[in-house]
Amino acid sequence: MNRSEYRAFVAHWNPNDFQKASQHKLLEKSVVSMAKLPAARFTAFVHRLQGRAAQGRALRSAEQLESLLRHCIGQRLCFKQAEGFGGFGFSSYVVALSGNQPVMVDQADKRELSAAQWWQSHGADDQGYMVEEYLTQHPDVARINASSVNTVRMWVTNTDHMHEVVGAYLRLGRARSQVDNVSSGGLWCPLDIDSVRIVELYDPRDSARVLPAHPDSNVVLEGYQLPHWSAAKKLALDAIAAFPHVGIVGLDVAFIPESPVIIELNVIPDYVGCARMELALKDLDRRMRGQR
Question: In terms of residue numbers, what domain contains 229?
Answer without folding.
Answer: 3-31+137-288
